[in-house]
Amino acid sequence: MNGSRLDDFLALSRAHPWELAPFSESLPDGGQVQVWDTGVLCIEPAMPGNRDLVLSCGIHGNETAPIELCERLLNAILSGRLTCRQRLLFIFGNPAAMNLGVREVEENLNRLFSGAHARGERRNHERTRAARLEQYVSRFFRAREGAERLHYDLHTAIRPSAYEKFAIYPFTHGAPYSRRQLAFLSSAGVDTILLAHGPTTTFSYFSAHGFGAHAFTVELGKVMPFGQNDARRFAAMEQNLEQLIGDPDWQPPAFDLDQIRVFRVCQEIIKQSEQFCFHFSDGVANFSAFPAGTRLAEDGEQQWFAREPEEAVVFPNAGVTEGQRAALMVAATTLTADMLV
After folding, report:
1. Which pLDDT does position 58 carry in this prediction?
2. At the N or C end, where does the chain have fewer CB atoms within 10 A?
């Protein structure tokens, strides 16, 4: 698409970090590319398959590996190297934070969905952005009925992990878990699943609960600066997404439940004041385990202890704002065949 405004969509979005006027262009195969806003691009194939796929990245601006992965997929489609056979919505979530090389500009965007952006009196660009991203996902999924709805929200973690790639399965409200989606994640190199224990304000839960989508927060490794990611570490995920985009009939390989590790949430540690502190090293990796009775954190008079025989910590971050989750404590569990569909 020589001479197109889409020649470098990410650069265009970063040049207009909070808003971009909509425009559209045609693909050589007859499909349409519709830019809805900065970082938001919808592809409508001439003959779409039966899946509606949302790929989001950069909800936190310093999580660069998924941004680069999605940019490669988008460029392959625009150049004609990859034929898009599914309706596809790309979301590069927070271009302003990307420009600054930070997780967020003012507020954690991934805590502002399912209407959280409108709660309280606080107003900022990230709250406005969350509201718009909700509208775009709603517009995309509501455009047709009967298609399988998918949303993979791609991230990288602040710190290393004992299990490099893992996914958070949003709370299902009692619905069964999807065997095919677990097979997709397993074949993409994501071998660890954390089952959410309740409703949240994350982007993936918004799609799962609001639209019945198979949606996941997928952690692909550790945060690195732009240009310093090893694409080989994400090759399996990239290849799976290429297959999903380009082949309407593609299915992931069959898998056994013993191919994945599964964890459940034991407790949440919520920061209440600036007195909050952890009682473990700042450098501790995700899924580091502690025996029962270990003092984990304190905040004034409140203290948290490991209660299970072995509890592992995920997403520890003492720097969150007051009232937000500073860590999840998780324990190993199992999925049985009767919990799957």
Report:
1. 98
2. C
User: Helical H runs in the chain?
Assistant: 9-15, 64-79, 95-100, 125-141, 179-187, 203-211, 235-246
Residue 89 backbone dihedrals phi, psi, to 5 degrees:
-120, 115
Can you read off the two tokens belonging to residue 143?
């455009």
What does the chain come to in residues?
Answer: 341
Average pLDDT over residues 241-270: 95
**Model confidence at 8: pLDDT above 90:** yes
Which residues sit opposite 35 in a β-bridge? 23, 41
pLDDT value, residue 2: 60
pLDDT score for 120: 87
Write the single-letter amino acid at 170. P
Q: Does position 161 have pLDDT exceeding 70, yes or no?
A: yes
Give the span between the Cα atoms of 294 and 221, in whole angstroms: 27
| Nearest-angstrom CA–CA distance, 43 and 26 | 10
| Catalytic machinery residues | 219
Q: Domain ranges in the chain?
A: 9-258, 267-339
pLDDT(21) > 80: yes
Contact 140/89 with Cβ under 8 angstroms? Answer: yes
Question: Which CATH fold would you assign to the domain 267-339?
Answer: OB fold (Dihydrolipoamide Acetyltransferase, E2P) (2.40.50)
- In words, the CATH class of domain 9-258 is alpha beta
Give the global pTM.
0.96
Q: Are 289 and 244 contacting, i.e. CB atoms less than 8 angstroms apart?
A: no
φ/ψ of 158, rounded to 5, equals: -65, -35
What mean pLDDT do residues 119-134 have? Answer: 95
Query: Cα–Cα distance between 212 and 23 in angstroms, integer?
Result: 29
Give CA–CA dist 247/34, Å, rounded. Answer: 21
The closest alpha carbon to 297, from 195, 284, 222, 103, belongs to: 284
Mean pLDDT score of the chain = 96
